[in-house]
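Run log // design_07
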């Protein structure tokens, strides 16, 4: 009996693993049966030299319940279990940080997403806390009500929130009625941040050139299905590196740079295609692509966007500390000063613009240097109010055993996070420094587990 029970439990566990993998990969639940057939076929081939073992393994694989209905039930159970486990961990922690943003889905329904970061006793974790639907207005009052209602319904305390990151929208950061001001009334020591990636994207708005490129792409791809098919056929005939243009998506931060790169790469193909069309719009876009001065602007914007996208990628992902992210921004601000000098020099950091200028024997436009200067000023203005984090604190976050316990950085840490007891922090750093076990663990452990 116990052997049978054990086999059934193992089959159920295997079914859960498969369902979880399908859900994370966003695959059809019906694919579970295909996975089972593939596993059986692999067992037949791998164990063809041992018929007895082969038969045993195949029988075990056949016992795993993997129908579409079963996979559906599993996927319904798994999120409930994960959410319950997350709530249990959150109730035990003293402090949590939230990242909050809202966006419309394809049905024009506003969705409020909340990500939570907390220390679970072993490591710092970042998890999706919830996705709340906002059917009507999205004012700060309504968002605050939905947030507090969610916390109350799930046994969490709003006073646990010690920091909030938002996109800087008025409903989030409004001085009197915004979400942040309402949360600050609950916890006066609340730390608030404007999402660093949102800030960096706002610094790089390049409207006129980008709008023309977007209209060009939309004309080729969206005017008619026939026109789009003919353009793709032309790319195949010309053995082009790319098979199509990319549509711009304002929600995707990297989209602008990639759309520009693709248009620059396919410029000759676009000129050839537009030359074959008779419409007025086609002639307008053809003039745009054959004007060397205008295309110089496009190449310049493309080069600038490649630098901004590189910064964006540095800021994306999990387990980044705020110190590291601000350090990346400060490094980029220093690079902008180099770009200002380089634009009128050898253009080492503007490869597309340099190639275009050399090919057409034309100088760069003075406006380009002004743009880089204004971009640097924009970054300075938007990040002027950001907390100034010294190199010692950044070093402590990366190499906690490399800093002095009684250095000035502990006072700065107290200024940044008033709830810190500076004396206790110094003592703890001293104790850490004398622990060989912690030093050994730190060599292989990620920063979030230190």
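design_07 sequence
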């Amino acid at each position: 009996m116990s052997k049978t029970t054990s086999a059934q439990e193992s089959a159920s566990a295997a079914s859960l693993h498969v369902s979880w993998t399908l859900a994370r990969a966003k695959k059809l639940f019906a694919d579970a049966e295909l996975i089972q057939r593939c596993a059986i076929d692999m067992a037949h081939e791998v164990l063809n030299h041992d018929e007895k073992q082969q038969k045993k393994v195949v029988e075990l694989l056949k016992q795993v319940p993997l129908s579409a209905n079963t996979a559906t039930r599993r996927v319904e159970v798994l999120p409930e279990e994960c959410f319950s486990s997350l709530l249990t961990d959150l109730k035990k922690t003293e402090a949590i940080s939230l990242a909050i943003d809202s966006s419309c889905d394809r049905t024009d329904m506003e969705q409020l997403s909340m990500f939570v970061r907390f220390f679970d006793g072993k490591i710092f974790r970042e998890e999706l806390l919830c996705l709340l639907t906002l059917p009507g207005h999205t004012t700060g009052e309504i968002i605050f009500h939905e947030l507090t209602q969610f916390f109350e319904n799930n046994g969490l305390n709003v006073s646990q929130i010690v920091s909030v990151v938002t996109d800087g929208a008025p409903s989030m950061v409004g001085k009197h009625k915004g979400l942040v001001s309402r949360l600050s009334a609950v916890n006066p020591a609340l730390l608030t941040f404007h999402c660093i990636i949102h800030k960096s994207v706002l610094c790089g708005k390049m409207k006129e050139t980008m709008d023309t490129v977007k209209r060009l792409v939309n004309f080729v791809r969206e005017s008619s299905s026939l026109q789009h098919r003919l353009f793709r056929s032309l790319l195949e005939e010309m053995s082009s590196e790319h098979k199509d243009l990319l549509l711009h998506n304002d929600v995707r931060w990297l989209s602008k740079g990639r759309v520009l790169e693709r248009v620059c790469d396919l410029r000759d193909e676009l000129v050839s295609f537009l030359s074959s069309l008779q419409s007025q719009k086609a002639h307008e876009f053809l003039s745009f692509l054959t004007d060397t001065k205008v295309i110089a602007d496009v190449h310049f914007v493309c080069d600038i966007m490649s630098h901004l996208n590189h910064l964006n990628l540095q800021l994306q992902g999990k387990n980044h500390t705020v110190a590291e992210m601000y350090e990346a921004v400060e490094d980029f601000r220093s690079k902008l000063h180099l770009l200002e000098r380089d634009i009128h020099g050898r253009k080492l950091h503007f490869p597309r613009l340099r190639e275009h200028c050399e090919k057409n024997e034309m100088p760069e436009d003075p406006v380009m240097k002004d743009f880089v200067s204004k971009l640097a000023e924009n970054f300075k203005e938007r990040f002027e109010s950001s907390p100034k984090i010294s190199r010692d604190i950044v070093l402590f976050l990366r190499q906690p055993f490399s800093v002095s316990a009684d250095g000035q950085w502990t006072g700065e840490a107290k200024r940044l996070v008033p709830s810190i007891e500076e004396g206790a922090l110094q003592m703890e750093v001293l104790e850490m420094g004398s622990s060989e076990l912690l030093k050994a663990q730190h060599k292989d452990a990620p920063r979030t587990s230190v």
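The CA atoms of residues 64 and 82 lie 22 Å apart.
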